[in-house]
Amino acid sequence: MTHDQDPEILLEAFTQAIQIKPHNALLYIERGILYARKQMYAEALADFDQALALDPHNANAYYNRGVAHDAVRDHEQAIADYTHSLHYAPDNASAYYNRGMALHELHRLEEALEDYTQAIRCDPDYVVAYYNRGNLYASQQNYDQAIENYSEALRRDPDAVVIITNRGNAYMMLDRYDEALADYTRALQLAPDDPSTNFNIGALFVNRGEAEKALPYFEKAAQQGNQRAAEYAAQLRQSSGTSSKWWRFWN
């Protein structure tokens, strides 16, 4: 039996199995995971609670209860659950990462950084851990460290558009325009319909003092539905391209 099967059939099967074996914690965990996937979080939490009542040292039950608490934005309880899970399974990279994300949501940044780092120690190829550690560094205006983490993520997932874009943004904040343009150009190749990329390239040219090159990118972004791009294209036309260094005010 796998979770790729029809979830309703699986739910019924696990419910029947629980009726036969009501003291089997694993069955409650599996049904709880199914409930969570259906966004039935109250039912999922009840099943994880029951699993832990039957098996108080079950790392998987704590972990999945943490995921469910995160889903309902109860990050404090999620952190407590991930901490319990890690006590019993200290090499679970996902538990460190998820706890880091919950801490990040609560702006407990140093603790989040430690957890992202620990997740990477457990799994050196954990792409999203590098990515979110990069985001955390960027939020602290530590752009060099952000770039380093985005680059590590891209070595493992070279076509991740959001990571390419965020690295380009970090390069922009350091006025490293050639590297930013290379990233934005790559992002545009991978996702040509994303208006934010055309907008970013326009902003780069304005910052670099080449406003005359920015206008077509703003116009393209405006055609793709970016209202800010339409406003800035109009401004550029009115100012004949004399405006500069807008990026710091836009972002």
UniProtKB/TrEMBL annotation:
Superkingdom of origin organism: Bacteria
Q: Where are the TPR repeats?
A: 25-58, 59-92, 93-126, 127-160, 161-194, 195-228
In terms of InterPro entries, this protein maps to: Sel1-like (IPR006597), TPR-like_helical_dom_sf (IPR011990), TPR_rpt (IPR019734), Ycf3 (IPR050498)
Instruction: Tell me the keywords, alphabetical order.
Output: Repeat, TPR repeat
Q: Where is the signal peptide?
A: none
Looking at the keywords, is Metal-binding present?
no
Keyword Repeat assigned to the entry: answer is yes
Specify the protein name: Tetratricopeptide repeat protein
- Protein source organism: candidate division KSB3 bacterium
